[in-house]
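Thread: quick sanity check before group meeting

JM: Hey all, I'm pulling together slides for Thursday and realized we never actually wrote out the predicted structure for the chain we discussed last week. Dropping the sequence here so it's in one place. If anyone has concerns about the input, flag it before I start.
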Amino acid sequence: MKSDTGATTPGANEIGTIRKSWRGRTTVALVYPNRYHVGMSNLGLQSVYGLLNGFDDVVCERVFLPEDGESAAARLTTLESGRPVAEADIVAFSISFESDYPHLLSLLERAKIPLLASQRTEHHPLVIAGGVACFLNPEPISPFVDAFLIGEAEGILPHFMEAFRSGTERRALLMAIARGVPGAYVPAFYRVTYTPAGTIDAFEPAADVPARIVRPFVGDLSQTATCSTVVTPDTAFGRAFLVEVGRGCPHGCRFCSAGFVYRPPRFRPVAALARSMREGLRHTDQIGLVGAAVSDLPGIGALCAQFAGTHTTISFSSLRADALSPELGNALKQGGVKTATIAPEAGSERLRRVINKGITEDDVLNAAETLVAHGIPNLKLYFMLGLPTETPADVEAVVDLVKRVKHRFLQVSRSRRAIGTITVSVNSFVPKPFTPFQWAAMAEIGTLKARIKKIKAELNRVPNVRVHSDIPRWAYAQALLARGDRRVAEILSRVHALSGNWAQALKVVAVNADFYVGRERDLDETLPWDFIDHGVSKAFLKQDYQRALDGRPGVVCRMDSCRLCGACGDEPPGADSSQETLHSKS
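JM (edit): ok, ran it. Output follows.
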C-alpha cells in the first residue's frame, strides 16, 4: 500500500503482526521514537513486542515517529488498531540512541500526555522507558519518565506486569514497581545534590527504595530464542528474519558500551540457532544474524555451512576483520552481498592498542582481500576521530591505511575484472558511560572538523574511494545526552520548545553544555549513572582507563568466570559497591 506521498505505508506489508482486542486487557503502546523503517530494524523492539503480547491479559501495539509530511496536529495512534496512544494503560518507550531523546518529548506532546511525570494524574497512562540508551544513562530524560526498566526484558517484564496488575493508585503503584521489580528505577524517589563546582555531591533515595539499580540479565540464553516477531520489507534489513546469536562481546573495546553492560558475553548453541533460522525460512529466504560479536559465535562457520546451497541469504550485523573465515566469506557470497564493512576504528597500531581494538593492519588488509576474493566488490571502512590520545600522526595513519587497503583491493579486483568502491566512514568519538573512556573529554568541534577536512582532502583524490563523515556538532549533542545529569533535561525542554533548534537552546539555557561534553572527569567523581550496577566494577574500568592512557592492551573477557571485572561475581580488589549513598570524594 502506498501513501499519498508515494511512500510505503508503515505496517502495510508485514508478516506476523499480532492483533488482540483491547477489551478486558492491559493495553501497552510500545513506542520507538524514530521512523518505522528504523524501529522495525531493531530486534530489541520486536522482542519486547512479542514478550508483552505473550501475556494473555496484555495487548501491545506499536507506535513510531510520524512520517514526514504528516500533520503535526494529527493525533498519535497505534499502528495495529489506530487507537489514540493516550488511551493505553502504559506507554512504553524503547530507546536505542540518545539522539532519540528529543523525540520522546515530541511524541508525548502529540499524544496529549503531560511532558513532566510530576504533572501526570490517575487519568494518564504510565510512561515507562527501556532500551540500551536508558541502560547507560537515563538521567537527562528522568523528569519525563515515570519509571525506567534497566536490564534485559526477559528478567523484568513478568515482574513489572505482576506489579501493574495490583491496580493501586499511581504513587503506590510506582512505589511497588521501585521496590519489587528488578531493574526498575523511578526517578521521583531519588534525590540528587551538587557540589559548588557543579559535580554530583550525592545521589540517594528519597523513599524506601533500593540505593542501587541492579540490572537483570539472562544467564543462559540456550532456553530462549530472540527472533523477529514481524517480518517486513520496509526496513534497513529488507525482508530478513532476524536471529540474535548472543549478547555481549568478549573483546573489551574501550569505546564500546555494549562490550561492558552486557557482560558476561553469552552465545546461543548452534543447534538452537539453526532451529530459529529454519523457522524464519518459513516466511522469507533472508536471515539476519544479529549480535555485537557475531563472528565470535563458536561454530559460526558450521552454522552457515548448514544452509549452503539452499538459496538462503545470510547477513551479519557485525564481523571482525580477524575472524573473517572462508565459511563466512562463502555465506556472504551466497547471499549476494555487494558491500561489507571492516571497522579498523583507528589508523595506527598505537591507537588501536589504546582503544583495545585487538586487530592489526595485516588483519584489515587480509579481510579486504578475502571479501573481494569472495565476490564482494565494495568495501566500507569505519573510523573514529577524536579518540583519547589521538595525534595528527594518527589522523594521517587513517589516510595511509585506506591507501594500503585500496592497493590490496585493486590487486584482487583486477584479477576478477571488477573494481568496486571503498567508502570511508569517519565519525566523531563520543565517550560513553560504563566504558573505560567514560572519564575522557570529547574532542572540540573545531578539532574534529579540521581532522575530517584533512582526511577528505587526502582521500577524495583517490579513485574509487569516497569519504562520508558525521557532523561534529550533532555528535556534541549526542555526547551531552550520553554524559549529562538531570539538569540536561532543561536543555532538552528548551530544544523541544524551540522546535529542535539546539544552537538557540544552548544560548538561552543556564546549563553549561561544555561542562558535560568537553571536560575530562576526575576518576573519583560521582558520575550521573553510578547508581546503576551492570556488574562491571568502577575500579576495573578505572584500571583499564589507565592502561589505555599508558598504551597497553586491555583484558579480553574469557567468558569463564574469571572474576577480573566483577561481572561474573566477585569484584577485583579496590571495588566498593556496598555504599548505600554515592558520595563525591572530591
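AS: nice. The chain has 19 helices and 20 strands. Confidence is low (pLDDT under 50) at residues 1-7, 571-586.
JM: adding both to the slides.
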